[in-house]
Amino acid sequence: MLVSADRDRFVEIDPDKVSRGSFYTTDGAWLNAPVRAFLSQAFFTNTSALDPFAGDGHLLDLVRREFGVATFGLDIAGDKWARNDSLVSIPNASSSVIVTNPPYLANHSAKRKGVDGLVATYFDGSDYDNLYKIALDKCLAAADFVVAVIPETFLLSSFDKSRLALVSVIEGDLFADTEAPAVVACFGPDGLQQLGEFKLGNASVYNGDALIGSLHEIFELRTGRARSGIQIVFNDPNGRIGLRAVDSHDGVRRIEFIYGDFEYKRTRIKVSSRLLTYLDVPELSDAQIQELVVRANAHLEILRAKSSDLILAPFKGNDKKGNRRRRLDYALARQIINANLNA
Ligand SMILES: C[S@@+](CC[C@H](N)C(=O)[O-])C[C@H]1O[C@@H](n2cnc3c(N)ncnc32)[C@H](O)[C@@H]1O
After folding, report:
1. For domain 2-220, which architecture applies?
2. What are the structural domain ranges in the chain?
3. Residues within 6 Å of ligand 1 by CB
4. At the N or C end, where does the chain have fewer CB atoms within 10 A?
5. Ligand 1 atom nearest to 58, measured from its CA
């Protein structure tokens, strides 16, 4: 057993479980109406399913029951499936539809948890910073259709989304033993622009069963009018604007711009503060700053509503009320301030 000191909390770690990302998808919530529609389309031409990271086989069991297709599994551990290192390559002679929940492990957390020796060969020479991206890359190389349960941070990542047809955010707890916020990402064949109702490269984004919009529409919300020439100073101990950049665990204090002091002590600010801070727009008067704070908060709430929160990164699972906590990155915070300087 390893022990990891993560923000002063000591957590026992099973190195094999962590390095293989063995957190099983015991809940069937991932197979919701939009994902089901996509899989029905995929099984028109390919009548079998493969999970190259099959674990206990929960995903395959559900797919076999619901679609009546043949299923195959591969795994690096256990004796239930043929052995294969699917982070290196995935054999798929029968062109099966891949349905999987690959291992998740960020390069930096592998180091922190002391398991980097077990996974270093995968990261060496790779541009990817998380095992699930390496896994997804191998899946996309091996199959025309891939349905993968992966971390929600995929949406904000630079991973190539040209084959992505559909994403559904799963808000409940999908896993038996971890709270990792997840999405189901559905990919179609390379070079295809339209697949039935699905547009590849401009995926439809759902929250569970509810359509939120297209990927482009949602992420365009992040690119607003920039007003250059006006200085905005972050992490300023004397800043007149407080910024709580994360939703609190209590579910009451949301991300907010605040005029003046809030629960964060100014003496604690560092250049690296990313969650709670103070900032300033030196050329504005106090009255203008107060107006700016009101407009910026209203703007933020509109962005949250229009994107169902997806333009904000998930932050550490759910709050006490069961809603997914979010973090506002400073690039977007700066853009919101900019857009409201003289609105
Ligand atoms: C997150 S679990 C998913 C299991 C299954 N898909 C599910 O959702 O129930 C990941 C699985 O991938 C396997 N695995 C980890 N690294 C692997 C590798 N390099 N090649 C093949 N399987 C691997 C682990 O043993 C584990 O069973």
Report:
1. 3-Layer(aba) Sandwich (3.40)
2. 2-220, 233-339
3. 20-25, 51, 53-56, 58-59, 75-77, 84-87, 100-101, 103
4. N
5. 9
